[in-house]
Specification:
2 domains; 6-stranded parallel β-sheet; Quinone Oxidoreductase, Chain A, domain 1; binds nicotinamide-adenine-dinucleotide; alpha/beta; 381 residues; 22% strand; binds zinc ion; single chain; Rossmann fold
Amino acid sequence: MRAMVYRGPYKVRVEEKPRPRIEHPNDAIVRVGLAAICGSDLHLYHGMMPDTRVGSTFGHEFIGTVEEVGSSVQHLSVGDRVMVPFNVYCGSCYFCARGLYANCHNVNPNATAVGGIYGYSHTCGGYDGGQAEYVRVPFADVGPTVIPEWLDEEDALLLTDAVATGYFGAQLADIGEGDTVVVFGAGPVGLTAAKCAWFMGAGRVLVVDHIGYRLEKARTFAHAETVNFAEVDDIVVHLKRATDGLGADAAVDAVGAEADGSFLQHVTAAKLKLQGGSPVALNWAIDSVRKGGTVSVMGAYGPMFSAVKFGDALNKGLTLRMNQCHVKRQWPRLLEHIQNGYLKPSELITHRFPLEHVAEAYHLFSRKLDGCVKPVLVPSA
Ligand SMILES: NC(=O)c1ccc[n+]([C@@H]2O[C@H](COP(=O)([O-])OP(=O)(O)OC[C@H]3O[C@@H](n4cnc5c(N)ncnc54)[C@H](O)[C@@H]3O)[C@@H](O)[C@H]2O)c1
Ligand SMILES: [Zn+2]
Ligand SMILES: [Zn+2]
């Protein structure tokens, strides 16, 4: 089959690979219909994630059609159109039983913190991902779900990661009626968090980034106020002034390990790899919420420590909430919002590429060229 293959930092291409086989009776093989590229894939592409092996296939945001099922699969049949959450999880361990699908204890022998994620390095289990013609889906009775007849495929696609994660980000921000919420990062995750903050009762939503076309999207898609951090002297002072001097009630970090805005953090994280990521946006979030406020962290950070302003968080009495998203848990409410017309995930998609153009797609998304917000790969094109 044809599959995206990692060849080292900034090098990805399509190669011929053996088609995945059923390895366990509860596996399914899915023929991929659409596979998005996530901001998280950029951390892999930039060589930020430990144990990202040459030859591996990325892709944890995908939908497709069931091609083959193992002998014990009960809930899926050949020909079903399915959306597959990015978490690989067993559904029955201590953590899965508590809804912590991202922290499943049975799917990743390489780490005790994170569970399994498709196409996300051996640190996250070593599973090949969906940016390919076919993908092996373990625990096929647990994660994958038949796409409702009424749901557009592109909307379903974004439910498997970006939109579920954005919603989760707003949820973890503990937004109360009338609250002011600041979202750092106007990528698909931040844009969705900003939009969903309104569903949870926010009275004011501000989005911070430094890319003009993305801030424009924050105004049109999420109806948010926007601030370009490169155009103000000090973003924290600016946000404090904008919120009566006290600070916002809640903030969401939808930027993660490769945040811009501090030369020192960038060099120590991205260049020297002395930290698990550059926590610039996280520190801005800590500084710009009011005392007693909440910071929700969706941005991804690597396993090592990062220079986070923990003392300030402590002394301000902040609540810090975070995790990888437990994708399937978010679907019932998101499906309601989509069905009721409040949310149209596919509005985030700006580019569609045949799988063969994967190198161009990564380059464009990584450099934020051509107005790219969310690129999608189409293996059959
Ligand atoms: N927790 C999860 O389950 C989960 C799931 C999906 C994605 N993520 C993570 O969420 C983050 C965002 O993903 P995405 O797909 O939206 O990525 P993206 O790359 O499209 O967007 C990131 C945005 O942050 C902006 N940015 C950079 N530095 C900033 C700063 N200091 N302040 C404000 N904005 C800044 C960039 O300009 C960019 O627009 C990534 O770290 C990704 O790994 C986490
Ligand atoms: Zn992702
Ligand atoms: Zn489990």
